[in-house]
Amino acid sequence: MVDSQETAPPPRRRRADAQRSIDAILNASRVVLGQRPDASMDDIASAAGVTRQTVYAHFPSRDALVTALLEAAAAEYLAALDAAGLDSTPPAEALAQFLDAGWRFLRRHPMLLNPTAPRTPEPNHNALSDVVPPRLERLVTRGMETGAFDVSLPASWLAAAIVGLQHAAAAEVAADRLLPHDAEALCLESALRLCGSK
Length: 198
Prior knowledge:
By secondary structure, the chain is mostly helical. It contains nine helices and no strands. It is elongated and about 60 Å long. It starts with a helix and ends with a helix. 25% of the residues are buried.
């Protein structure tokens, strides 16, 4: 009889295979749920090219899968903000880069603003509502301190208003009332006016 340890794949290969499956499932979830927020685990498994059992082996419930997707999306968005150099670019330009990162993120993860999507569970960490506004507030504060932005309104209020503007603009695009390019331009112009950009 052959020793099963000799025929089993080494642990490192098993981990790499598992990670490939997880990546495929999360990527399929992003696409499928972006198109059909009520898609089933079977739909996601099919799009990922894995079995339903494989999906459940990594994500014991739909909520667990959506939570993992949101956490991966948040990490991706934060990496984009890090790469934008928001702390070193002139404030008005940094604000444009902040909004551009948001638009790219929303195009990649449309389910996040879909009003027909089922309730999404709260991520265990890196919830976008917790980590993105402070970065924007820091950018606005720097703009105020350097004289690039008006100081008559609190930076925290302006940050919340800018995030709200982008959400409203994205909703207009989703409702086919604005073209994406127009929404992005209007959002940037409105955000700069809100900040009293000089």
